[in-house]
């Protein structure tokens, strides 16, 4: 009810997001993934839509329902997420990379299910690095306003600001610790060229609204 009376701060804007984990197959029945429920990204997609934006959500495997009015594209691997994002990036005003993207995929994934063998030999997996979706979007000519997330296990203040510079994004959002995974509450720290600021601890939907307002206030024009 309250949201309906707020000004639509993203009216006429197009917002693209990634959310959830990716899944990198080892064989047809096994894979490697990251810890992410997708809740934060889905909450931000919902908040952006409430703020009047046209929202596209590239979602890795999650058990979450699609927020009302949001265009959702389901993907599994980091490469698929990258390809879906690059195909949709043109003309977007904002890109928010919330997904916990697997940094590596299995280079020697098997087309058939791997079988245990009597000697106890274990599979020897080799890895290849996945494309960095956020950095790729940030490097586009006429890139949208790019927002990254960083879940660090230590030294958040230092690592998050380093990550913001490395990825060349104007805004990077730090999660405090891994205690946020799967939880409904979270605490965020925003890093931009002026320094950093905390958003007070709150439910993910409330935080998502606060973050969307922060992003709207930073858009050019
Ligand atoms: N990200 C991405 N594509 C990747 C890896 C990360 O788009 N292949 C995005 C994430 O969605 C997040 C940001 O980059 O918004 C930071 O992700 P993170 O894993 O913290 O950073 P990395 O650069 O992968 O560094 P590391 O995992 O080594 O700390
Ligand atoms: Ca990573």
UniProtKB/TrEMBL annotation:
Pathway: Cofactor biosynthesis; coenzyme A biosynthesis; CoA from (R)-pantothenate: step 2/5; Cofactor biosynthesis; coenzyme A biosynthesis; CoA from (R)-pantothenate: step 3/5. It comes from the Bacteria. This is Coenzyme A biosynthesis bifunctional protein CoaBC. CTP binds at residues 103, 113, 131-134, 149, 163, 167. Binds 1 FMN per subunit. In the N-terminal section; belongs to the HFCD (homo-oligomeric flavin containing Cys decarboxylase) superfamily. In the C-terminal section; belongs to the PPC synthetase family. Residues 15-221 are annotated as: Phosphopantothenate--cysteine ligase. Its EC number is 4.1.1.36, 6.3.2.5. It comes from Noviherbaspirillum aridicola. Its cofactor is Mg(2+); FMN. Keywords: Decarboxylase, Flavoprotein, FMN, Ligase, Lyase, Magnesium, Metal-binding, Multifunctional enzyme. Residues 10-216 form the DNA/pantothenate metabolism flavoprotein C-terminal domain. It catalyses: (R)-4'-phosphopantothenate + L-cysteine + CTP = N-[(R)-4-phosphopantothenoyl]-L-cysteine + CMP + diphosphate + H(+); N-[(R)-4-phosphopantothenoyl]-L-cysteine + H(+) = (R)-4'-phosphopantetheine + CO2. Signal peptide: none annotated. The chain holds residues 178 to 398 of 398 of the full protein. Catalyzes two steps in the biosynthesis of coenzyme A. In the first step cysteine is conjugated to 4'-phosphopantothenate to form 4-phosphopantothenoylcysteine, in the latter compound is decarboxylated to form 4'-phosphopantotheine.
């Amino acid at each position: 009810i309250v949201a309906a009376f707020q000004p639509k701060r993203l009216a006429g804007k197009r917002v693209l997001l990634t959310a959830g984990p990716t899944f990198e197959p080892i064989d047809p029945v096994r894979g490697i993934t990251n810890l992410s429920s997708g809740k934060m990204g889905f909450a931000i997609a919902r908040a952006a839509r409430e703020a009047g934006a046209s929202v596209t959500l590239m979602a890795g495997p999650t058990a979450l329902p699609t927020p009302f009015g949001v265009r959702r594209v389901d993907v599994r691997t980091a490469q698929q997420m990258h390809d879906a994002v690059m195909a949709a990036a043109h003309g977007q005003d904002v890109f928010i990379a919330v997904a916990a993207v697997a940094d590596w995929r299995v280079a020697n994934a098997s087309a058939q299910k791997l079988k245990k063998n009597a000697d106890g030999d274990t599979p020897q997996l080799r890895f290849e690095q996945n494309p960095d979706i956020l950095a790729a979007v940030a490097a586009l000519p006429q890139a949208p306003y790019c927002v990254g997330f960083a879940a660090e296990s230590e030294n958040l203040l230092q690592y998050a600001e380093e990550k913001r510079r490395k990825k060349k994004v104007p805004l990077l959002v730090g999660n405090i610790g891994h205690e946020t995974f799967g939880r409904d509450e979270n605490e965020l720290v925003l890093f931009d060229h002026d320094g950093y600021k905390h958003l007070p601890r709150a439910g993910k939907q409330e935080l998502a609204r606060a973050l969307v307002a922060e992003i709207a206030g930073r858009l050019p024009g």
